[in-house]
Amino acid sequence: MNNPPSAAAALQYAVGAPAAPTIAAIDSCASPRHVADLVATVVAGYPDSDLTTLTGHHYRYLIARTRSGEGIYLVTAADGDVGDFTEEIYEACVREGEREGLHPAYHIHSRYNLFATPGVYWTQLSTAPARSATDDKRAKMGRPTPAVNSPRPTISHPH
């Protein structure tokens, strides 16, 4: 199995920087565009002046740093979707933060928080509905994919 996309590589993809080598190693199920969208969602939650993105460092989870020197981390699973925050991932985030010279405060964005510890500021990200082969065929034909759980359109008839 190939390595999942790194958050930093996805950020490079999102901002139009040259593709990092890790982009080519994305698992066949993962979409670099989807991971880039997740990164963009996380980054958009912070004021521009407070954040420096880390596009050239090839970190697995670390995507940005705050002006005060704290790390912003995105946890993605092997399929490129939002992953769960575990003790193993916490330890990897600590190593990445130390390598970048950051303060021991971790702003973690993941699906579920399965490991609680001081210094972690956790934000839940929901997972997007999975795309099917039918969705991909509809997109190629220029037809929109129906929204999941959306109400049916109301058709009004003149009386």
| Strand-residue proportion | 5-15%
Rg over alpha carbons = 18 Å
Q: How many helices does DSSP assign?
A: 5
Query: Order of strands across the widest beta sheet?
Result: 1-2-3-4-5
In N-to-C order, the SSE pattern is HHHEEEHEEH
Sheet with the most strands, sense and barrel status: 5 strands, mixed
Overall 3D form? globular
**Oligomeric form:** single chain
Distance between the termini: 61 Å
- SSE-based structural type: alpha/beta
Estimate the mean pLDDT confidence.
Answer: 73
Low-confidence stretches: 1-5, 11-29, 145-157
β-strand number: 5
Helix content: 25-40%
Description:
The chain is α/β, with parallel strands linked by helices and 159 residues long. The chain is built from five helices and five strands, in the order H-H-H-E-E-E-H-E-E-H. It has helices at residues 7-15, 21-24, 32-44, 87-100, 133-140; strands at residues 51-53, 62-66, 71-74, 106-110, 120-124. It has a five-stranded mixed beta sheet, with helices on both faces. Strand 2 and strand 3 (71-74) form a beta hairpin. Helix 1 (7-15) crosses helix 3 (32-44). Mean pLDDT is 73; it is low at 1-5, 11-29 and 145-157.
